Amino acid sequence: MSTHDLAGRPPGPGLPARLGALGSGAARLLNRYSFGFALLLTLVLLAATLIHDSNFGWKDQLANFAPMALAAMASTPAIISGGGGFDLSISPLLYLSGEVFIVWLAPHGLGGYASVPIVLALGLGIGLLNGLLIIILRVPPVVATLSMYFILIGVDLRVVPNAQYLGENWVHRLAGSIGPVPGALFTLGFPILVWLLIGLTPYRRTLYAVGSNDATAFASGVNVALVRVVAYGIGGLFAAVGGLALIGLTSSANPSLSTTYTLLAIASVALGGTSLWGGRGGLIGPMLGAASIYLLGNLLITLQVDPSYLQVMYGVMLIFAVILSGLSARTRVKA
Q1: From 46-60, 83-97, 248-262, 299-313, the region with the lowest mean pLDDT
Q2: How many CB atoms lie within 10 A of CB 220?
Q3: Terminal CA-to-CA distance of the chain, rounded, Å?
């Protein structure tokens, strides 16, 4: 039997080989544009949502989306720092930041703009404490931040035993408009601006170096412990912004919901292309990952799909994101 086709050409590669080549090509593409899958998924889901929801309001949707996106961005620096870095305390910290504003600051005459540095300092301080616990105790970050997770849940319940509501306050503009600009753009833009400013310093390059290979970074004279502590501090700072965005949206403090964003944030980071092994990623990817999850939830609600399927879809998306991350990591090793 001839080994050539009717045109005299040798046969092309078989289906397994073509699929393998396709997978390698996709992995190389994701290696170059790590947030590519999240971007494509966001655009597809946004188009589907606009088709099925004629009342889609951009300002309101941005306000609803902002806390989840900020929780995802807050989770990112610790993951980039490597060493198994995960901050599981982001969600209760986000809620605590809002509770402190409603329960302590606003009733005592500190509900104006002066409250912003206080809330940000709280988030930064708890984030740094997380980092110090990891370095001092020398325990896996998941263990240390899980401990802080439970502590903050208890503090949330202590600060606000029952749901409390905020009266008229400037913070409501964060879920509405500040002049002609949607307020959510300010809360979403703050972490991105901070990240860009950090990029002007040697720290961000050092953070990626530590996340990629902490032993090599240490041998080069990098203070690995300090870099990782600061990464957790930055995450806490971003979580505090999320707390302000949340109370602007809900005008309330409800400690029973303080764990809402814990797993969604990590899923968003993975879906956005940030390497769970550290050393690679940014803030745009996690924000797009959060957008994908948020839009998927909206679409299923619009289509009146059983809510139980939403959790299944979250799990499927996360598994797929981890697979893509693994393919991308293997491509980098081969390169």
Answers
A1: 299-313
A2: 10
A3: 39
Residue 308, pLDDT above cutoff 90:
no
pLDDT at residue 285 tops 90: yes
Of 96, 38, 64, which Cα lies nearest the Cα of 184? 64
CB of 237 closer than 8 Å to CB of 124: yes
Structure tokens at 219: 């041998």
Q: What is the pLDDT of residue 13?
A: 54
Average pLDDT in the 5-11 region?
Answer: 47
Say whether pLDDT at 314 is over 80.
Answer: no
CA 175: distance to chain centroid?
19
pTM of the model as a whole: 0.88
DSSP class of residue 125? H
User: Residue 266 to residues 90, 91, 241, 274: CA-CA distances in angstroms?
Assistant: 10, 11, 18, 10
Question: Helices 141-159 and 90-100: crossing angle, nearest 10°?
Answer: 30
Identify any residues that bridge with 181 across adjacent strands, giving them in sequence order.
178
* Six-digit token string for 132: 């110090």
Take residue 269 and report the two structure tokens written for it: 């980071």
Number of residues that this document lists for the chain: 335
Helix (H) or strand (E) holding 253: strand 252-253
Q: Are 264 and 314 in contact (CB under 8 A)?
A: yes
